[in-house]
């Protein structure tokens, strides 16, 4: 569910020089994660082009509509879901 917290991924990340983490341009975003995916045996994932699913799938529009139904702003609705899952912030 949270691949970035997987011990194998964390182990790979710990070996990376922090200087290479900042992308040089928009095309090289997530290049480090793609390299890690390839190193861990997932070349098909590493070769995928990044697409923002919330834009193409209109997920944001659906979330805004659900928030409006509850009389909440978008951020309030998202926070309410997070609080429901993880417990409210103290």
UniProtKB/TrEMBL annotation:
Q: Gene3D superfamilies, per this entry?
A: HUPs (3.40.50.620)
Descriptive protein name: Asparagine synthetase domain-containing protein
- Species for this entry: bioreactor metagenome
């Amino acid at each position: 569910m949270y691949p970035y917290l997987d011990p194998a991924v964390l182990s790979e990340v710990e070996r990376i020089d922090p200087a290479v983490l900042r992308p040089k341009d928009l095309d090289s975003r997530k290049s480090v994660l793609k390299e890690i995916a390839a190193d861990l045996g997932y070349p098909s994932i590493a070769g995928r082009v990044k697409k923002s699913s919330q834009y193409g799938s209109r997920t944001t529009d659906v979330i805004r509509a659900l928030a409006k139904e509850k009389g909440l702003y978008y951020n309030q609705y998202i926070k309410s879901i997070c609080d429901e899952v993880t417990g409210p912030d103290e």
